[in-house]
Each structure stands twice: as C-alpha cells, then as structure tokens.
Design goal:
- By secondary structure, the chain is an all-alpha fold.
- The protein has a domain of about 30 residues.
- It has two helices and no strands.
- The chain starts with 9 loop residues before the first helix and ends with a helix.
Length: about 55
C-alpha cells in the first residue's frame, strides 16, 4: 500500500496513534483538535480513494 499510494502520510497516521496511546496524559488538546480538523479530512479522502481503487 505504501508503494502504491506514496502521497498518503502513512508515517504520520502511525505516529499520531502511537503518540495518543503512549502519551495519553500529556497530549496537547490543541494538537489533537488541529489534527481532527486539518489532517483527518485529507486522510479520509485519500483512504476513500484507495478503497474505491480496490473495487
């Protein structure tokens, strides 16, 4: 998947997950808020494009 869809920020998605899981009590809410409204919408479009290409 990474080679077929290099424009997707795979590392960023994994890093965010690890950050939230391992730094639960020190997560900056503004960072999470920014991710929700600025990063996830683009990521969602990319994932939908991937799913559509698999059909």
């Amino acid at each position: 998947m990474k080679k077929k869809f290099p424009d997707v920020d795979w590392r960023g998605a994994k890093s965010m997950r690890n950050f939230i899981v391992h730094e639960y009590f020190s997560v900056d809410n503004s960072f999470v808020w920014e991710t929700i409204f600025e990063t996830i919408p683009t990521f969602k479009i990319q994932i939908n494009d991937i799913l559509n290409s698999l059909e």
